[in-house]
Write a structure and sequence with these properties.
This protein is of the alpha+beta class. The chain is built from 6 helices and 6 strands, in the order βαββααββαβαα. The longest helix is centred in the C-terminal third of the chain and has 16 residues. It is globular and about 35 Å long. This is Putative thiol-disulfide oxidoreductase DCC.
């Protein structure tokens, strides 16, 4: 089976800063790419899906979005005595996962207001 990939919005300064933070503080073998540089058709994704939420995808498998994708990325982390993996496991736990979705949606809608965000980070109205 093909390896997974984590996709984020490369046009969003806030998203890019979050990815840079993760890369500085965690290690993973999973490629982390802007969705604009990925073969979305091969991953079974659309630009609209990727513009709405980060994605964890692999060809032939159902993609995971938002906090579910983040949990997968964290669980794929190496090093730091497993702290990132533990965070991913906690985020995967149903009560935490259920609460994470409204928080994720709020951040996604307001990412242009977050530290490092710009007007270009705004999600399309729709």
């Amino acid at each position: 089976m093909a390896e997974p990939v984590f996709l984020y919005d490369g046009d969003c300064a806030f998203c890019t800063r979050c990815v840079e933070f993760y890369r500085r503080h965690a290690a993973t073998e999973v490629p982390i790419l802007p969705w604009q540089a990925a073969d979305l058709d091969a991953l079974g994704l659309t630009a609209a899906e990727c513009d709405t939420a980060v994605q964890w995808a692999r060809p032939g498998a159902e993609p995971k979005a938002g906090p579910d994708a983040i949990a997968r990325l964290l669980r794929a982390s190496t090093g730091h005595l497993g702290a990132w993996k533990l965070a991913g496991l906690v985020l995967s736990f149903p009560p935490v996962r259920w609460l994470a979705w409204p928080g994720y949606r709020w951040v996604a809608r307001n990412r242009h207001r977050m530290p490092g965000g710009t007007a270009a980070c705004s999600l399309p109205r729709g």
